[in-house]
Write a structure and sequence with these properties.
about 270 residues; Pyruvate-ferredoxin Oxidoreductase, domain 3; 2 domains; two-stranded parallel ribbon; about 20% strand
Length: about 270
């Protein structure tokens, strides 16, 4: 019995207590883990955020988290997105989909890929592999390798079976501050990645995630902390200027950054 069937059931033929109703209502048929991997500086945050936001806007529950194993350019990092049609309040380990932007991170995170999982890679081909040359497409079709991330985001949306309109709405909002030309080019780059991946997905990608009439608000832990502090009456925060929380100081809080000389402590 689905959630809709439960709501519409007025015959009395199925008597469910509150506990069993909750269990049936939140029985998940979609629960996927996507791992986006690459070197620090390659923009995996952009890909991960756009995908997470798109899934959320499409009415699905999202739990995303990012590794900060290396903040040095060239070190491997990952952005992981759990997408479910039921509440998901914790990460998963094994990956249904692994998108790799470089060979080093692919070697590191490939052991997480399930046996029936799908690898999306720039060069590798083979069984259960979708080959999409993100960088080449970005350079040849759009004149700049910076658009490779948006090509990759479009490819992921197609593999998951998300609606292209949902993806376009997120991209338009994300890049709105950079001008109409940038928005148009990113939309075209995403559409290109989407179309290439959709073609390669035939007979391979089993997922379909149509838009649902559910409203969710995607919020980061840093944003939640800032909003919670403001709601609780906090009016003063002392923090290190480069802390990730620092960008949320636009809230009505009095702030005091750390002294400049702290930047120099511990220097060799």
């Amino acid at each position: 019995m689905t959630e809709t069937e439960i709501k519409n059931n007025t015959s009395g033929t199925s008597a469910l207590n509150a506990g069993s109703l909750y269990a049936v209502r939140w029985r998940s048929s979609i629960d996927l883990n996507i791992v986006v991997s690459g070197a620090a500086g390659q923009g995996i945050q952009t890909i991960g955020y756009i995908l997470a936001k798109t899934a959320s806007e499409a009415g699905y529950h999202v739990f995303a988290w990012q590794e900060y194993e290396s903040r040095i350019r060239g070190g491997s990092n990952s952005y992981r997105i759990r997408v479910s049609d039921a509440p998901a309040n914790s990460p998963l380990v094994e990956a249904d989909i692994l998108l790799s932007l470089d060979d080093k991170s692919k070697a590191k995170y490939r052991p997480l890929l399930k046996e029936q999982g799908i690898l999306i890679d720039e060069q590798e081909s083979g069984n259960r592999v979708i080959t999409i040359p993100f960088v080449s497409i970005a350079q040849n079709d759009f004149g700049n390798t910076l658009f490779a991330n948006t090509v990759a985001a479009g490819a992921l949306a197609a593999v998951l079976g998300l609606d292209l309109d949902s993806l376009n709405a997120v991209i338009a909002d994300e890049f709105a501050g950079k001008g109409a030309d940038v928005v148009r080019t990113n939309l075209s780059a995403a559409a290109k990645g989407y179309s290439v991946a959709k073609k390669d997905c035939e007979g391979l990608c089993p997922w379909r995630m149509p838009k649902r009439e559910l409203a969710h608000y995607l919020i980061s832990g840093n944003e939640a902390l800032a909003l919670g502090a403001a709601a609780a009456g906090c009016r003063f925060i002392a923090a290190y200027p480069d802390d990730p929380f620092h960008r949320h100081y636009h809230l009505p809080l009095e702030t005091q950054g750390a002294p400049e000389d702290i930047h120099r402590t511990g220097g060799g």
